Amino acid sequence: MVNCVDDGPAFFSADVSSQNEEFQEGNDDINTDLEHLLGIDDVRQKKASALFLLKLKETHRLSQVAIDNVVEGSNTVFSHTVQRLHSGVRSKLASLGIDETQINSVFQDLSDPFFGLETKFKQDKYFVEDVGLVEPEEMLVGDPCYSLRFSGNKRSFVEQHDSFQYIPLFKTLERLLKDSSVLEFIDNPHKRIDDKLEDFCDGELFSSNDLFLRTAEVHETQCGELEEAEGDLKKHYSKTYGINRRSKLLCAKNFSLFNGGLPHDAMHDILEGVAQLEVKLLIKHCVSQKYFAIADYNHRVENFDYGKNEIDKPGKITREILASNDKKFHLSAAQTLLLCRIIPLLIGDCVPEEDKHWRCFLLLLKICDIVFSPIIPKGYCAVLKLLIEEHHSLFKLLYSSSMLTPKFHFLVHYPDQIVALGPMTRYWTMRHEAKLSLFKKASHLGNFKNIAYTLASRHQRWMCYQLASGDILQSCFECGPGSGTRTVAQQPSQIRTLIQQAIPSISVDATVFQPNWVKKNSVNYCNNNCYVMVGTDGIDPLFGHIIDVFIVGGDLILLHVYHCQNVYFDDHFHSYVITDTTNMSIVCLEDLPSPFVLHGHKLFDESSETYIIMRH
Q1: How many angstroms from the chain centroid is the CA of residue 82?
Q2: Is residue 267 pLDDT above 90, yes or no?
Q3: C-beta separation of 282 from 308 below 8 A
């Protein structure tokens, strides 16, 4: 009994001592974590908060008043939340008999999420100094003018200047080259070694012109000779070297000077020119021949089974549009591109195969197949030249030369231009036109006092957000809801085997998520009658019918497909007739020959065959 009594307090004392030591160790860990959070994370938090404000303003197009309200409201909510948290922690520590004063400084050091970003001035200052915002600069043009203004009973002349907003080129290039993805793209050559043209670097102009063969050392020597020369010798060097002065762009790291000229643009020439005119004339011809009525055409346009990615649906037409003398069909470039692709399936079953007007339009589609292709074998340029000659000759015969416009002539230069500069979709204005929507939306915010500055300023902040929020050349993706995440080992045996065949090195512990859809680079991948090109047989493409989509490891996109068999290519409908097989496989999205999703279509004559229209 005595021993028990004597041992009791000793055991209790040791237990309390052990708990205190564990608490002290835990407290040290907490202090270390808090020091870490209160130290470097203040910088990260401020940048994250600044990018959040940029996103709200330039992506979701909120006004500055709305941004100020967000900042003020968020700070109030944060302050109240911290106070409640502080009170709760103090109460809990007090109930445990722990000194609460140790944590007071922690809560006092917590700053508001928008600390230092409370006003527009502070926000702009941070954007410029820490995020890399390149502000537009006002440039005055011409001489000042004076306008008469009234203030009550007084009138005065006010000096005014014409001006424009200039985006500093050097600062913009400097900011772009700080982006790791841009710098990596420049540092790593991407010229193809086969006989295909993929971008400007594969064109003859890049390969043969002295300007692109000139090294930095040779150019520096030539600039030095030009600067030292005088009179006629200076003019001689300037003409020989093609240099007037040392460019400021030479100060930008990894930037090379070049002159690509002013190439023809396929979007304006074809999609807003030749194609619209020919589609209008073709439909007018078909209506006059009573192949179908305008109401029938409109019904088919309205009820066509558009695919998930065929979003730029063409509008209905009227008799007034067909009867007008203008050479427009009143469609956007994107609508014209989709209409040209689907019109063989839209009305092809109504048009006789021997119709010459239809044959002329099919020639235009073959031209478009080459012109809009992202990768073009050099030999196809000779084929393109023959197709353009045949098309123009037949068009002139069918519709008379009075219908020919200068844009028809521009097409004649396409083969040589592609050989010199690469595929035309690499430098067409389709993307430039798409970006105009950014300015159109910004112009609707109600600030018209200086609209040029408003648009330039908001564009630069939008660009600043894009550059600061991640690598701009690294494509990301988004996905829809789906089944739960499981490992490769937990997949059904057939799926597990197909995944391992597609990626032999994959771990059985890798995570696999099966979403309903995945969207990457504006292309939607799902099992809604979607097909992809999985390879070629040497001549014709091979297709796969998407069954499921998987995301492995959080970033690798896999497509589970049924392999299709090509029955034949139907020239009249300018599409492949295909049928599904029972053969299945899983393919990596990044390994596909073409990233585009194709859609299986049926004809309006209720035939059971599935038609695939190629897309470039």
Answers
A1: 40
A2: yes
A3: no
Domains annotated on the chain, with CATH: 20-131 (no CATH), 140-167 (no CATH), 266-428 (no CATH), 477-612 (2.30.30)
Round to whole Å and give the CA distance between 142 and 258: 31
Is residue 376 within 8 A of residue 203, CB to CB? The reply is no
Whether 360 and 278 have beta carbons less than 8 Å apart is answered as yes
Could you report the per-residue pLDDT of 171-229, keeping only the tens digit for each?
999 888 888 888 887 777 677 878 888 887 788 777 665 545 555 677 778 888 888 88
Say if CB 547 and CB 527 are below 8 A apart: yes
Q: What is the 3-state secondary structure (H, E, C) of 262-322?
A: CCCCHHHHHHHHHHHHHHHHHHHHHHHCCCCCHHHHHHHHHHCCCCCCCCCCCCCCCHHHH
Mean pLDDT rounded to a whole number for the chain: 84
Residue-wise pLDDT tens digits, 562-583: 999 999 999 999 999 999 999 9
Helices vs strands, H then E, count in the chain: 22, 15
Predicted model pTM: 0.74
Tokens in use for 217? 């050392």
Residues 396-434: pLDDT tens digits? Answer: 999 987 788 888 988 999 999 999 889 999 989 988 888
Of 611 and 439, the one with more pLDDT: 611
Buried b (16+ CB within 10 A) or exposed e, 547-562: ebbbbbeeebbbbbbb
Residue 54 neighbours by CB under 8 Å, 6+ apart = 127, 131, 461, 462, 464, 465, 468
List the one residue out of 336, 279, 338 whose CA is nearest residue 615.
Answer: 338
One-letter amino acid of 578: I
Q: Are strands 575-588 and 597-601 parallel, antiparallel or unpaired?
A: unpaired
Q: Are 464 and 488 in contact (CB under 8 A)?
A: no
